[in-house]
Amino acid sequence: MAVQLPTLELESELFAGGVRFVIGCDEVGRGAMAGPVSVGMAVIDAQSGTFPDGLRDSKLLSEKRREALAPLAAAWVLHSAVGEASAAEVDQFGITACLGLAGKRALLALHESGADVAASVVLLDGSQDWLNPALASPLRVQTRVKADRDCASVAAASVIAKVHRDRQMIAAHAAHPAYGWEGNKGYGSPAHMAAIVEHGATPLHRVSWIKSEAH
């Protein structure tokens, strides 16, 4: 089965319609048992040109390929940022609210780097706009199922966010080696779940999720 390659087709349609900037947006770590939920954003305009060869949705790439592509993706886009919400915040506010919180933080970082957020359309992977409920001033958001697969700006955001979060979990593995985060990146692998039973939760675990799994 051939792998679906991303294009700039949707982004080009938006530019042709008068949009100045497109912000590709994707989340990473939504279903993890430990670690933050992270939202990546990547800004392009009509002059951004050809995206890096081999760019794909991060889920379709090996860890080695993602590591190689992340700096190329960051160099291709005008601005990029990753916002996060912690495991404790996920426990307190719930995952959907924390997607919005992480997205809000990514937008703030984009603004601080000089991106014209107000003149942008956010191209959001999925069918649900979880971003605008977190914002005081709503943005124009266009959702697209499998945008991380089909749209190059969102694929870039996906790779940048995935590498950023994976590096955090690999670093955290050194302090908590029993949970295997170097390999599972905080997701609920059998070995990870068995380690939680044996050693208990760490401050990086989503305790409410562990309790849910236990029932």
TrEMBL record:
One Pfam family hit: RNase_HII
Subcellular location field: Cytoplasm
Record keyword Lipid metabolism present: no
Enzyme class per UniProt: hydrolase
Domain RNase H type-2: 20-215
GO cellular component labels: cytoplasm; ribonuclease H2 complex
Stated name of the protein: Ribonuclease
Organism: Microterricola viridarii
